Every structure is written in structure tokens, then in C-alpha cells.
């Protein structure tokens, strides 16, 4: 048995169940193709199908279907609702994963970080993730990103993070880089 003891890692025993609240808010990851209209839209959640393809030993996932919106359509009150829900879920779970649209993911991550900083900081790891290509597409990054977020939330110290494309970045100081199609560290 290997125990991770680095400052940025959490510890737990191998035989305990890790309880994760998975908050879904929509975004590209959950877009489905409407054959009649010829468009991708947020009509129904595909996360349950995605999760069913994963072997999730040692975790219990509580799904929290908060909303199903393209993040470009999110209002300030939507960002507040996500932040409030993440804080609430972190009280009764070992970690929180938020599936979110990538266009406004950094705004929500910053909002959660700001809210929790004002209350002494995050007490659990809260990990945001999303996808640049919908789950329904052949070359999707959705499965990889959700898997990475589910692993990251179990290993990271308390804080707010984004996990995508084989990287984990901590808020604040995270932004989407549309040219690279991923998230990067900014300023400092």
C-alpha cells in the first residue's frame, strides 16, 4: 500500500468508500445531437451513460442535476447557485466534482474560490471539469476529463481546481485558452 503524503495530496485508507457529489450543470460535455434540427443542444443529461461505462471501485457518487445549460447562457445567479451548491455538498461528501461548460468554467471556479476564501477556505477538494467535444461525438474528451476529475478529487488537498486534458490547475489564476483548447495558468 502506498500512502500519498505530499502537501497537495489527501490521504485515505484503501478500504473506505469515498463519497463524491457530482454536480451537473450542462455544457458541451452534455450536448446531444438533434437530427431533425441538425444542432447540438443541452436537452438531456448524458452523464449517467458516461458514468455507466466507468469502473468506479471505492467510490459512491451522488448525482446532483442542478441545471443543463450552455455556460454562455449562465447568469450571475447561476454561478452563485453552483457555488452555493458546491459548498453545501462539500459538507456531507468527501469531495465534489462539477461538470460544467468550458466557456464560463473559470468564472464559476473563481466564484467558488472567493466564496470559500471568505469562510476560511475550502474544507474539501472541489474539482470542475468539462469537455471541448460532446460525449456523443467519436473523438470526445468527455470520458477522459470526467475520469481525471473523479481521480483528482480523491487525491487533492482541500481547494478548488479544474481537471482536464491530463492537467490539474488550482484556482484562482485559471483561464480557458481557446487557441489551445484547454485551461492554462494565468498571471503569476
What is the secondary structure topology, with strand pairs?
Blueprint: E1 18-26, E2 32-34, E3 39-41, H1 47-52, E4 59-69, H2 76-92, E5 95-99, H3 105-117, E6 125-129, H4 142-155, E7 159-164, E8 167-170, E9 174-177, E10 182-185
Parallel strand pairs: 1-4, 1-5, 5-6, 6-7
Antiparallel strand pairs: 2-3, 7-8, 9-10
Helix pairs in contact: 2-3
What is the rounded Rg? 16 Å
Residue share in helices?
25-40%
Please state the second-level CATH architecture: 3-Layer(aba) Sandwich
Low-confidence stretches: 1-8
In terms of structural class, how would the helical and strand content be classed?
alpha/beta
| Count of DSSP-assigned helices | 4
* Secondary structure tally: strands: 10
**What distance separates the N and C termini?**
37 Å
- CATH H-tier superfamily: L-asparaginase, N-terminal domain
Gross morphology = globular
CATH class bucket: Alpha Beta
Mean pLDDT: 85
What's the domain count? Answer: 1
Sheet with most strands: 6 strands, mixed
**Beta-strand content:** 25-35%
Element order, helices and strands? Answer: EEEHEHEHEHEEEE
**Strand arrangement, major sheet:** 4-1-5-6-7-8
CATH topology: Rossmann fold
